[in-house]
Amino acid sequence: MTERLATTPFGGGRMSAHIFAMQKRVSDTQAKLASDTGGNETGTAEKWQLLRALTEARSAFGLSDRTIAVLEALLTFHPDKMLDGRAPIVVFPSNAELSVRSRGMAPATLRRHLALLQQAGMLLRRDSPNGKRYCRRDERGVIDEAFGFDLAPLALMATEIHERAEQARAEARRLQTLRAEVTIHLRDVAKIIEAAMTEGRKGAWAEHQLELATLSGRLGRATAAETLIERKSALLVLRRRVEEEFLNSLTNEEMSANDVQYERHIQNSNTDPTFEINGHDTKHVEPQAEKAAPERKGITISLKRVLAACPEIKAYAKDDISTWADLTRTAALVRSMLGISPDAYEKARAALGESSAAVVIAAILQRSDQIRSPGGYLRELTRRAEAGQFSIMPMIKALE
Hints:
By secondary structure, the chain is α+β, with helices and mostly antiparallel strands. Helix content is 57%, strand content 7%.
């Protein structure tokens, strides 16, 4: 049977069941590692990597950033980069030096954070007979006995700390995704309502605007995932109603796809539909001439390729985008959200054709963060198309 000696706090510090249990746990773990019965555990860790992981996972252990700062200060007193928890790792700084390395933290504050580290199971006090921190060295100058703070428990918790850090990173990514989705829904719904009201479309837009205002409250950094999920769900419900009402307000002319060339091409396609995008109106071209035109000047592009280059537009589709008609309907909705006037869009459709104009809208949406004036940009492309100086293929290639 291995002899176990419990170390009690100096002076007025009280021994507790928690301290005794932690000492036993550390002692038992060190004994297993010494006898090679610790499994995959090594009891060692690189101290700065471990501190970084603990910083990410600090909320899981109930630690604040100031407590982490005190631990960082303690680690600076250990000369090696590696922490080997198979034996005690005792550091013995003076109160004055520990305060300096803790950014001038007051003694009372230091004591509170040291107690929190001990409560979290990362620190053991190895108090000397008189409570002072020091070490005794042998005749060769090697430390023979030391009194102070034992960092071995921290090293022995390395696996748990790294696992908690990974969980914290995953949760942070989830929260970031939820926040982004909430922001996008808020922006999109607001722009649809604004476009509808600007264009004088029929609908309960004032009521929708009021409902949106109730869902636009500030979300703090510590907002729980449940709150974000509730906000996202409510915005999705509102978004579906707003989009449906906007689509219902579109006229037959706005919804129609009247470019004969594209209709004929799509109807004759048995697999992945393509269309000619040379920027010329081929409505009255004879079939043979129409066939020859793409061979001479035109560039064909598939709907699949368009959606691969411009995936953002799929988020605005009522169901899915599987046909050119789906893309055209979705582009009509996105056009308003981008602030492009009906007149500018009609001129683009006349110059480019129905499906080509829809592709341009999808491309503008994909680069909306780089285009300051989508309406002005579309008018410029329309002018170039009318002059025979614009082709969609380079635009799509630039997005791939």
